[in-house]
Structures are given as structure tokens and as C-alpha cells.
Design a protein that fits this description.
The chain is mostly helical and 158 residues long. Helices cover 75% and strands 0% of the residues. It is built from six helices and no strands. α1 packs across α4 and α2 (43-73) crosses α6. It starts with a helix and ends with a helix. 15% of the residues are buried.
Amino acid sequence: MKTLSALFLCFILSLTYVSLSAQISSPNQREYGDVRDPKDFTDEEIQQFGEILQSVEIIQTEYKEKVNKYLNNMGIDMDSYQRIVSRLRGEGEDRPNDEEMERIRLINEQMQEMQAQVGRDVRKTVEDSGMPIREYQDKLKAYQSNDEFREKVEATRK
């Protein structure tokens, strides 16, 4: 169960990054991969990122609870939803029936709206902290890909 929660958290962090990336577009946007070396982040920057990340995780936990509640209201649990989506992608012997397809369509529409709200909430949290969105994204990339940086961030959160 912890693995599923960790995977869900990574998924949400990725969605948040994608959502924030889509909201940011400027002519002088940095090229992909042009990110500061995590070793260059100061202790204060790491501490601030850890605090923001903790706030973002609260938003994401609330989102997860809303998704589960919504799925329950739709008469389906997360495992069943994922199985139907897998079948929809052709991973399985049969395709979803029309009723399942309509249910998934409705669920996906609502989940997209919820994800958009999460993106707005995360953006506001980051902006309210005083950290530029681009800097948050750089640190989020480092957090997701650099074990040493992730350990430093986690050490500030204990």
C-alpha cells in the first residue's frame, strides 16, 4: 500500500510539474535540461523548497481524498478504475463496454477539472512563498531525479 501511495505521490508531483509548465510560457523560457546543479542550492533554498513541498503534499493528499470520494460516489474504486483504463488502452483481453466507457469519460472529465484546480492551488502556494515558479520547477526536477538533493530536502522536513 505504501508503494501505491508513493507512486500516486510521484504521479501527482509529475502532474503538478506538467500543469505548472503548461501555465508558464515566455519567450526567454529556459531550454529543457538547463537546470542549476542541486549542489548549488543553498541550505536556505533547500529549507524553503522543503516547506513548499510539504504544503504541496497536503494539497495532493486532499486531491487524492477528493478523487477517492468522487470515485466512490461514481460506484467505482481506484483499482477498478485503473483496470478499466488498462483495458481501454488494450491491456487485457476485452475492451470496456459502453457503460464502462461512459463512466470513465465522466470520471476523466471531473478528474481533469480537479487536476487543474490542484495546479492552480500549487502555483498559488509556490507564488505565496516568494519562490519563482521556474525555480520551484528546477528544484522539483532535482528532487525527483537526484538522490542526494532529495535526501537534503527530506532532512529539513524531519
